[in-house]
TrEMBL record:
Domain of life from the UniProt record: Bacteria
Lineage, highest ranks first: Bacteria, Pseudomonadati, Pseudomonadota, Alphaproteobacteria, Hyphomicrobiales
Protein known as: Transcriptional regulator
Pfam families xref list: HxlR (PF01638)
This protein's UniProt keywords: DNA-binding, Transcription, Transcription regulation
GO molecular function, one term: DNA binding
UniProt keyword Disulfide bond present: no
Entry keyword annotation includes Transcription: yes
Organism, scientific name: Bradyrhizobium nitroreducens
Domain HTH hxlR-type: 19-111
Chain positions covered by the region annotation Disordered: 106-129
Amino acid sequence: MAKQADSKTRSVRGSRTGRPIMVLLDLLGRRWSLRILWELRGEPLTSRALRTACDDASPTVLQARLTELREAGFVELEEGGGYGLTALGRELCETFMPLHRFAERWRSSSPSPRLRGEGRGEGGPPRRR
């Protein structure tokens, strides 16, 4: 039988145990979370620049994700007013780099134009069904 989460631990989607990997995957699986981390990997960005980099994501959703990422210790508000990655946030982004390299190789070898991103531009919004 699985251990129940500590009463102080907030329950997360997909896990009643509060296991760290499930908490992390829940956070990173939320809309725009990974994109925000990815866009901040190079340098801090203001809210406006980050919103532009995130294809004009809703300001409400963007602020909600920034708040969650700040609470998680991955993002911090810089003295100049922009958002940047913390040391922990940079470490997390580094763990994505092998996956990023793999994705680039996979995309170039994929026989599917849809999976290569053709026909809608890179980073474009998904087509509505």
